[in-house]
Automatic annotation (TrEMBL):
<feature type="transmembrane region" description="Helical">
    <location>
        <begin position="163"/>
        <end position="185"/>
    </location>
</feature>
<feature type="transmembrane region" description="Helical">
    <location>
        <begin position="48"/>
        <end position="68"/>
    </location>
</feature>
<feature type="transmembrane region" description="Helical">
    <location>
        <begin position="12"/>
        <end position="36"/>
    </location>
</feature>
<protein>
    <submittedName>
        <fullName>DUF420 domain-containing protein</fullName>
    </submittedName>
</protein>
<dbReference type="InterPro" id="IPR007352">
    <property type="entry name" value="DUF420"/>
</dbReference>
<keyword id="KW-0812">Transmembrane</keyword>
<keyword id="KW-1133">Transmembrane helix</keyword>
<keyword id="KW-0472">Membrane</keyword>
<dbReference type="Pfam" id="PF04238">
    <property type="entry name" value="DUF420"/>
</dbReference>
<feature type="transmembrane region" description="Helical">
    <location>
        <begin position="118"/>
        <end position="142"/>
    </location>
</feature>
<feature type="transmembrane region" description="Helical">
    <location>
        <begin position="80"/>
        <end position="98"/>
    </location>
</feature>
């Protein structure tokens, strides 16, 4: 029996989403054994938020360019930008989870009022959108890589991709706001 990914995009999307969210929540909740992770100098761990802010800002640019390219009918450049965004996201996530596993989440250094009424709501929306984006991004990615370009137009790639790109863009932007509040403003 032949297993063809193109015939199982929703199931593969669900499986990849479950594995990804388990890895994220497992790390955040401390289920990853720290002893299994390689050690890094504290200077590197301290640099991760700054590196991730660059990745996040670059991802915003690649999403915007990807949207512009597809609107202009340039599928190859669109694909390159969206795959670049995915690569930036993966790099961001690996570094973020590595730091979280070793050091835990960063504490907000600003005033309590800003923490409660600005920082937490922005962080909550950022996290919620990041979680919602995972299955959407997997879905459009799997549709794109399992079909020739001419067949993608007959799928939900365009409709779901618009939603995924919009939410991903907002999530990255809010991630940069979180970074600014944690590491620049306070």
């Amino acid at each position: 029996m032949e297993l063809r990914a193109r015939d199982h995009v929703p199931g593969l999307t669900a499986a990849l989403t479950v594995v990804s969210l388990a890895a994220v929540f497992g790390t955040v909740l401390g289920a990853v054994p720290v002893g299994l992770l390689p050690t890094a100098p504290s200077a590197f761990l301290d640099a991760i938020p700054h590196i991730n802010a660059v990745f996040s800002t670059l991802a915003i640019a690649t999403i915007v360019l990807g949207v512009r390219f597809i609107r202009a009918g340039d599928v190859d450049r669109h694909r390159a930008m969206m795959l670049s965004t995915l690569g930036l996201f993966v790099a961001f996530l690996v570094l973020y989870l590595y730091r979280i596993a070793l050091q835990g989440p960063a504490e907000f250094p600003g005033p309590e009022t800003v923490y409660q009424f600005v920082y937490l709501p922005i962080l909550a929306v950022h996290i919620l959108l990041a979680i919602v984006c995972i299955p959407l991004v997997y879905y459009v990615l799997l549709l794109a890589v399992t079909r020739p370009v001419s067949a993608i137009y007959d799928t939900a790639h365009r409709r779901v991709g618009r939603i995924a790109a919009s939410l991903w863009l907002i999530s990255f932007f809010l991630g940069d706001v979180v970074y600014l509040l944690l590491y620049v403003v306070y």
